Amino acid sequence: MAKAKGKAKQMKGKMKEAAGKATGDKTQEAEGRAEQMSGQTQEAAQKAADRAKRTGR
């Protein structure tokens, strides 16, 4: 579930970044990139937690 939320956050960030580029809004572009990174981090953390569960750690 958290992996899906991370992917969704990445997609939202990509759209926000694209909108910022289209309108010339550098702040919105940066917010979009930050949201993408946050989503990637969330997804990676969940993958690590899933891996730890499988190995029993």
Automatic annotation (TrEMBL):
<feature type="compositionally biased region" description="Basic and acidic residues">
    <location>
        <begin position="48"/>
        <end position="57"/>
    </location>
</feature>
<feature type="domain" description="CsbD-like">
    <location>
        <begin position="3"/>
        <end position="54"/>
    </location>
</feature>
<dbReference type="Pfam" id="PF05532">
    <property type="entry name" value="CsbD"/>
</dbReference>
<comment type="similarity">
    <text>Belongs to the UPF0337 (CsbD) family.</text>
</comment>
<protein>
    <submittedName>
        <fullName>CsbD family protein</fullName>
    </submittedName>
</protein>
<dbReference type="InterPro" id="IPR008462">
    <property type="entry name" value="CsbD"/>
</dbReference>
<feature type="compositionally biased region" description="Basic residues">
    <location>
        <begin position="1"/>
        <end position="13"/>
    </location>
</feature>
<dbReference type="InterPro" id="IPR036629">
    <property type="entry name" value="YjbJ_sf"/>
</dbReference>
<feature type="region of interest" description="Disordered">
    <location>
        <begin position="1"/>
        <end position="57"/>
    </location>
</feature>
<feature type="compositionally biased region" description="Basic and acidic residues">
    <location>
        <begin position="14"/>
        <end position="34"/>
    </location>
</feature>
